[in-house]
Every structure is written in structure tokens, then in C-alpha cells.
Amino acid sequence: MLMQLNFILNKFGVSMTINSANSANSANSANSANSANSANSVRDLCDEFNFGSSPRYIFGRTPYAADIIKKCKPHAVVDDFTNESHFNGIPVIKLNEIDVNGIVVSAIVDGRPVTATRTLKNKGIRYLDYFSFKKYAPYKLKEPPHVSSSAFSADYYINKKKYDAIYQLLADETSKETFSRLVKFRLTEDLTPMEYFTFRPADIYFESFVNFRVEGTVFVDVGCFDGSNVIDFIRLCPDYRSVHLFEPEPKQMEQIKKSLGDFRNITYHQYGASNRAGALRFTSSGIWSHMDDAGETEVKINTIDALVNEKITFMKMDIEGHECSALEGARQHIINDHPSLAICAYHLVDDFWKIPELVLSFRPDYHVYMRHYTEGVLETVFYFVPVH
């Protein structure tokens, strides 16, 4: 029998379902006591970092470290992987140079926050992860991309039945474990559930359960960025039929064409994939490039249905929150071709239910999987594999 999402969340200390008055009161009392003790110790360490006399350090040369430096001057920034002597005016030291009485705030957030805190813990260093520090710091700090605990919590409680429904239809236990842990992390910004994951972006999009056809595959890469996923696909399916890639940014498209120039049957669509033809403003910032009303560039947009004129076998999307619009513009291909899909689902607070709900409204005959490829907020993917 399938476990309810509520019960899986309970094992991480979040109680969403009341089975009986007595058990609920007992569990809530225990959870409240544990949470209070934990919160107090974190708050005390945060206060000591900001107001005490202990040496204070920041772990990692990241944008989050730069933001902390603006608010409170640390003794040093810790980074074992650089020869730079300073970061934003602060001396850079190695891990083994930290004062034994010091406190470290880890500013490693996006990819390997669990590895970072585990490293500090194994060294016997007093530390705070960024999410805990942000919660109790006496000043506002930079929010990690794509996740706001308050916004996600509001969406979760409004649409809880939708979250439960998506959890129930997931195709395997790994997907359910992934879903429940990510929900817990987004609700609480507690890194504990993320200890389940490892940093493995090299594995993204091409999971074995997708059952790729060796011959005759048509791959559509929506949000191509540097073309590396196209190369990964060609290695996996060397006898492919064709590739269609979408990338609206002109300079990025030039680089893609150089990278993929030796490969056959590639169609380059310099458009943003959307649910209509027209134009949108676009902010160009490397992997964070996205559609933006205040963007510095205007780019053309169009639908996948209008631009791809052959049957699609496999489609991948990573377009910084524009996925649902692009899926709407691929509706006829999804209905008629029944392609496998790999759709990123971490940019918007409602992606966890809205993306699968949308795809399954086109065709319900998909197995739905979820995988996550970092220890932080980035790289969550829904896979839709045709039921045959």
C-alpha cells in the first residue's frame, strides 16, 4: 500500500496529518521540544558569530559569502581550492588555518551544501549552514535561487491535495523519497533531508528508465545553453535521426553552433519556446539566463508545435521557469507523438504539481519519475515515460 506524503514528512519531523488526538498531541509536543532545543542552539551560535568575540569565518567564495561580508566583517574566508589571497577585501585562508575557537558560516548553497557542512563537522569546527544562519541573522541575506520557504509553504498549504495527488502517482519509491525530501527542505530550509542526495549533474536527463531508442530518435533540447546535453544525447544514441535545439540568446547560439558544427542533422531554432509566437524581453546571464520583463534584450518566441515538423521521440526542457508555457506550445506533439520528456521543475514554487498536472492533462498515459541531482535547490527533473 502506498504511503501518504504526510507520513513520510513525519519522519523528518513535519506533522501534516492527525491520526488521533492523543498521538498528535504527543508527537507534536516531542517535535516542538526537539525543534525548540535545536532552534535555540542555532540562534545562540548565530548570535555568537555576530556579536561575540570568537573568530568568525565564511566557508566558500560565493555570492552568498559576498553578501555576508557586506553585513558583517569576518576574520577570513576559507577556501582550499584557490590561490587568491583575498575575496571582497577579506583574507583567504585554508581550512587547517581556522582558529579552534572560531565559528564558520558555510556559504556553499547551490550544489554541495551538505558536503560543505559535513566537511566542517568532520573537522570538529563549530559551524552554521547558510540556511540556518539566514533564518536567525540580525540582517536580511541573499535568498537562494528558485526557492522561498514562505512562498513554497503558502503554495503547499493552499494546494496540498495537488501535492498529495502527484506524490501518489509517482512511478517508483526513489521518486517518492525524492519528492517528500524536497518538499520538506522547501518547507523548512533544513538541510537534513538533503543528506539523501549527492552532487551528480553529469547524470541529468539521460536516466536508464527513459528507455532511449538506439536508432531513429528525434531529440528536442529546449534551453540548450552550451550544447553539452546534445553531445551527451549523441553519445547515447549515435544513430539518431535529428536534433532540434532552442536557444534565444544570439551570442550563446553562436557558441553552440561552433560546439556542434561537426554533428549531422541539427536544426538551430533561435527562439524562446513558448505558448505563442511573438517576442519577450530576455536577461542574458549564463546558466541563469531567463525571460524577464526588465531584460536588456528582446528575443523571438514561438511554439514547438509550429517549429518542429517531425515526430518527437525525446524532449528536455530547462528554461528558468518558462517550462509550462513551452509545454503548452508543444501540446500537439505531446498528444500525437507521445515523446519521453525530461522537464526541470525547480524554478517556480508551484512546479512540483503544476508541471505534472499540465503534462498529464495532455496525455494521462505516462509513468512519472522525479530525480534530483545536487545537494541544494538546483536540478530537480520530472521524467514522463510513455506507458506502452
Automatic annotation (TrEMBL):
UniProt KW keywords: Methyltransferase, Transferase
Any Pfam family matching the protein: Methyltransf_21
GO MF annotations, alphabetized: methyltransferase activity
Domain of life: Bacteria
Annotated Methyltransferase FkbM domain residues: 221-354
InterPro entries the record matches: FkbM_mtfrase (IPR006342), SAM-dependent_MTase (IPR052514), SAM-dependent_MTases_sf (IPR029063)
SUPFAM superfamilies: S-adenosyl-L-methionine-dependent methyltransferases
GO process terms (BP): methylation
Protein name as it appears in the record: Methyltransferase FkbM Family
Organism: Enterobacter ludwigii
